[in-house]
Amino acid sequence: MQIDGNTQLVGIIASPIAHVRTPQLFNAAVARQGLNAVCVPLHVDAAQLPAFLAGAQAPHNLLGLVVTIPHKEAVVAACGELTDTARLVGSVNAMRFDRTKGHWVGANFDGDGFVAGLRERGHTISGKRVLQVGAGGAGKSMAYAIARERPAELVIHNRSASKAAELAAQLKKALLDVSIRSGDNNPADFDIVVNATALGLHDGDAIPVQAELLSAGTLVCEAVVRDEDTSLLKTAREHGCPVHHGQWMLYGQIVEIARFLEVPLEPQYVERMLGPFDDR
């Protein structure tokens, strides 16, 4: 990859930033396809976020931003326009500045990426009982996408019970024919368990479900991206559960986010470059 005066920029903002994997995937893919674009990681603390977004409107070759923890909900207020998913879940993970309208346009592809990753690995949600732990920025989008797949039941747990109840009620208004409720983090008798929290990103993080109650055969899924198993996935294997790594969700988002930011990235150029890891 050669950066020159015609290079189009994509920023990814987070705090901290060192753990993100999107730049590696994006840059390898656009280089492979021969596109003159680059994704740059940017460590932006919450206190500096408004000033950063104001300044980010200026560069004409900045196509937009990928947004991750902890900014996904905070950037909503800066957007003059939201996609349907972003509006429903109140969370944004990609934004571009519309110079004609003079405002940021926010979108959210967390849920679409998660479901696409499941499909690629041969997993289906329809008719299954699903427990999702986490109702934050990514969790809201993931729950909406899961509910659209028509599970037999979707139960949402969050450390703050009121937040889970609020999300469940919000989703039920949009999807009247789907059973959605809030509940505890007991994974017994669920077909699919999903970790939509950041727990597992660091060694020593708590396991987000009552792991001793996992049922053999339950598919245990991560949103956290690590080269190796998180503590949740390690424990799931010990209980005879198949696992689904967070990398697949990331792969599912890359192309959609690129297209939203007007980078014509084709799926075949996004290589499975993280790992190796074993989803069994």
Give a written overview of the molecule.
The protein has 280 residues and is of the alpha/beta class. The protein folds into two domains: 8-107 and 249-269, Leucine Dehydrogenase, chain A, domain 1 (Rossmann fold, 3-Layer(aba) Sandwich), CATH 3.40.50; 111-244, Rossmann fold (3-Layer(aba) Sandwich). The chain has eight helices and twelve strands. The chain has helices at 22-33, 49-55, 84-89, 110-120, 137-148, 161-174, 231-238, 247-260; strands at residues 8-14, 37-43, 62-67, 79-82, 94-98, 103-107, 129-133, 153-157, 180-182, 192-195, 219-222, 243-244. The strands form two sheets. A six-stranded mixed β-sheet has the order 2-1-3-5-6-4. Strands 9-8-7-10-11-12 form a six-stranded parallel β-sheet. α4 (110-120) crosses α5 (137-148) and α4 packs across α8. The two termini are 35 Å apart. 46% of the residues are buried. The model has no long low-confidence stretch (mean pLDDT 93).
Which structural class matches the secondary elements?
Answer: alpha/beta
Strand line-up across the major sheet: 2-1-3-5-6-4
Q: How many domain regions?
A: 2
User: What portion of residues is helical?
Assistant: 25-40%
Query: N-to-C terminal Cα separation, in Å?
Result: 35 Å
**What spatial form do the alpha-carbon principal axes imply?**
globular
Averaged pLDDT, please?
A: 93
CATH top level assignment of the largest domain: Alpha Beta
CATH topology of the largest domain: Rossmann fold
Number of DSSP-assigned strands: 12
Counting H and I runs of at least 4 residues, what is the number of helices? 8
How would you name the CATH homologous superfamily of the largest domain? Answer: NAD(P)-binding Rossmann-like Domain
Low-confidence stretches: none
Beta-strand percentage? 15-25%
CATH architecture of the largest domain: 3-Layer(aba) Sandwich
Q: What is the N-to-C order of secondary-structure elements (H for helix, E for strand)? A: EHEHEEHEEHEHEHEEEHEH
What oligomeric state do these chains adopt?
single chain
Biggest sheet layout: 6 strands, mixed
The gyration radius over C-alpha positions equals 18 Å
